[in-house]
Design the sequence.
């Protein structure tokens, strides 16, 4: 007669196949009794990371955190916001301390600890690809934009995502139209700026300043073909005036000597071919917008006189 199997041992040994993160229901399905689960927790073979959610290893990695949140929230949950975007190379998005999930409205699980839930009747399809289940990137960007209070932060997010081909302006516009209108103003303004040609938050801010001050129409991120067969992309261009305004980002040009040198060489090259170049740092435009408007107005007025002479 076979001896009974102790209740602190699973019905079968699948240690090598057991996921790093497992929910209580899945552990029971695999044959672990409640006492077996409690024994593993008591002996530190498993670790409780969320209610009814266990880590079967020793170190909770970033991926483990995402999988634990999804396991806790149920099979229909999807990562969104910063949690879904953090590993896509966007400078404006870092791994969040709290993980945001989309769940259907009828799901009754409650948020806890570092897991936040957003109930919705508009669940998106999961984004294709390996890894933890995420909302499609346009939805994740829109969800993160709703949480950011500063227009510059939202513009940076949208501009970086569009430039990196993570999503299109059209897809974000569709999310804006279908999503909640409360809190969506910054996303709408960011989309307007990026559609107009802004590649960064400082460019978008500068463009708004110029338009509000009544400056003549300009091109953003415009290509100039030079007589030597090369070309450059400039931030703002008044083509008929052969006038170029460069917004030299503090983050890139002034912290990266190579970028700073390239910007300086590009300005010299443009001046050699008859262009007038004015450069300003975003911090100066923000700190004294009125002075920037006066300087730019005087510069363009003088340039128009030179061209007419």
Sequence:
């Amino acid at each position: 007669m076979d001896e009974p199997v102790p209740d602190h041992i699973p019905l079968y040994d699948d240690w090598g196949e057991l996921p790093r993160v497992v929910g209580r229901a899945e552990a029971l399905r695999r044959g672990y009794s409640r006492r077996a689960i409690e024994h593993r927790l008591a002996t530190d073979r498993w670790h409780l990371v969320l209610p009814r959610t266990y880590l079967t290893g020793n170190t909770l990695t970033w991926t483990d955190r995402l999988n634990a949140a999804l396991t806790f929230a149920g099979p229909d949950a999807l990562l969104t916001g910063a949690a879904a975007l953090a590993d896509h190379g966007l400078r404006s998005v870092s791994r969040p301390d709290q993980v945001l999930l989309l769940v259907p409205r009828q799901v009754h699980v409650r948020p806890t600890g570092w897991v936040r839930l957003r109930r919705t009747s508009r669940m998106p399809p999961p984004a294709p690809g390996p890894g933890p289940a995420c909302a499609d990137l346009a939805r994740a960007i829109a969800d993160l934009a709703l949480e950011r209070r500063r227009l510059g932060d939202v513009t940076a997010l949208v501009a970086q995502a569009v430039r990196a081909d993570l999503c299109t302006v059209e897809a974000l516009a569709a999310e804006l139209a279908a999503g909640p209108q409360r809190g969506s103003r910054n996303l709408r303004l960011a989309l307007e700026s990026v559609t107009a040609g802004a590649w960064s938050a400082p460019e978008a801010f500068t463009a708004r300043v110029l338009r509000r001050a009544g400056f003549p129409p300009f091109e953003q991120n415009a290509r100039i073909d030079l007589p030597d067969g090369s070309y450059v992309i400039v931030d703002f261009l008044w083509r008929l005036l052969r006038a170029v305004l460069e917004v030299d980002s503090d983050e890139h040009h002034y912290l990266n000597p190579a970028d700073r040198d390239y910007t300086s060489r590009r300005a010299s090259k443009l001046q050699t071919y008859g262009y007038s170049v004015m450069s300003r740092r975003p911090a100066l435009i923000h700190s004294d917008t009125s002075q920037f408007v006066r300087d730019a107005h005087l510069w363009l007025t003088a340039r128009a006189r030179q061209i007419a002479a």
User: Anything to note?
Assistant: Residues 1-15, 251-257 have pLDDT under 50 and may be disordered. The radius of gyration is 27 Å.
